[in-house]
Structure prediction request, 511 residues.
Amino acid sequence: MSQLKKRIAINSATNVATHFLRLFIGIFMTPFLLHRLGTEAYGIMPLVNSCVAYLILVSGGIQNSVGRYVTLNLAKRQYDEANRYINTALALLSGLVALSLIPFTFLVLRFPSLFQIPVGHENEARLVVLMLGANLLIGILCSPLGIGFYAKQRFDLRNLIEVSSQIIQTSLIIIAFIFIEANIIYLAGATLITNITSTIVRIVISKRLIPTLKISPRLFDRAKVKKIGSYSSWVVVSQISVLLFLNTDYIIINKLLGSADVTEYSLAARWGVMIRAVAAAAVGVVAPLATQMEVGGNFEQLRTLLVRGMRIVLLMVIPPCVLLSIFSRELLITWVGSEHLAAIPVFWATLLPLSINLAPLPAFTILNGMGKVKWVAIVTLASAIANLVFSIVLVVWFNMGILGVAVGTAISLSLKNLIFIPVYVTRLVKAPLGDYLVGLTKPVAAALPMTGLAIFFQHQFNLTGWLPLLSASAACVLVFLVTSYFWVLRDVDRRDLNMVLTKLSFVKHPG
Prediction:
């Protein structure tokens, strides 16, 4: 196996493992927090996270831009140029963060009057907004100093830091809730403390990864501002679009339906967010590689990354999306209790379309690495606006409640990911559209035996409880993996997989 494949495999594996840990912690912590805080107080957290997430726009897309340009210059051994980009980005971010303090202060002070906050929790909500907002702004400001993990493709080290931070954060929350008080302030406080600590650690290790990294006001370069800005402007449009997709749902629900409905919607939405995060983590490591391949004109490798990446993503996301939908009733009863069964339709509307809507994730990563973000940003923004309109119309005019928000999001996301992206990316990397479509439909067809088995299990057995639920899911996944091995994977995929399994085996093979 080549060094390139080894690095991709290591980075993808550690990324996926990190996000699986987050998923496990999220599963464990949800009933713990929900039962101690109550439905209405718990609903404040996803609402605050949705609002605070818009602070990412303060970065102006500079984080993405500096990552691309630093990677390019390090590949060319132009260390002084790389330093100029880093220091210019740091100066720009410092100014943007300073400017953001005015609207951020307004949000902190006026948050309870802007949204439906449960009576008695107004001051708590303000403090949570303050701490989570400050946490995000600190991360944005320090992001250029941690560029070493991206530029040197050492996502494994970054993930080790994140895993440690996540474990410490969860431990602090449990200790505070058990020995002090169940309060959302301790949730936000633990997040702020652990993230500041991990940011410091990332900066120190990043400096070791790039020994030539220098921080000095004299390295600010006005000429670099234009280059960073030209790339960043479309990244900002893309960020706005993604935020509209992922974070307006909670705001719409809070304003039109109430805080308790935010909690019900979040039970399904959090699974979608985690599945998306795991899949994105698996393919996100190819962005710097795509940059290097574009510089070298290696379009054949880019085509390989695109098609194989899509197959990997679909093989990862189809089983959880399909099984979580089919077993949603049993999961909710086992996980958070039968009083939350109203979320079942949201599971179906959120997760089932996601099983194919995540297929273009490798395409997005490659396009970002190639710097081709303009048209993706424009179409994503149009889709995000459509999502906003669909969701409000379905809630207000058709009285569909939280299900209307989920359906509106699914429709708008499908229009973009299943029509525009395949055509656009295959043209850019000069790949046949037919190869892309075959790579999309084969994993879907391979899921049919698994789907049939899951429906059979649900009708024939009582799957309430973690043991029967996990046992049935494991059997279904096994059927999907066997079907996919012979039906979806190509010969080269099977050879690489067999090689990985051989290297991981503890048994010495003869010969």
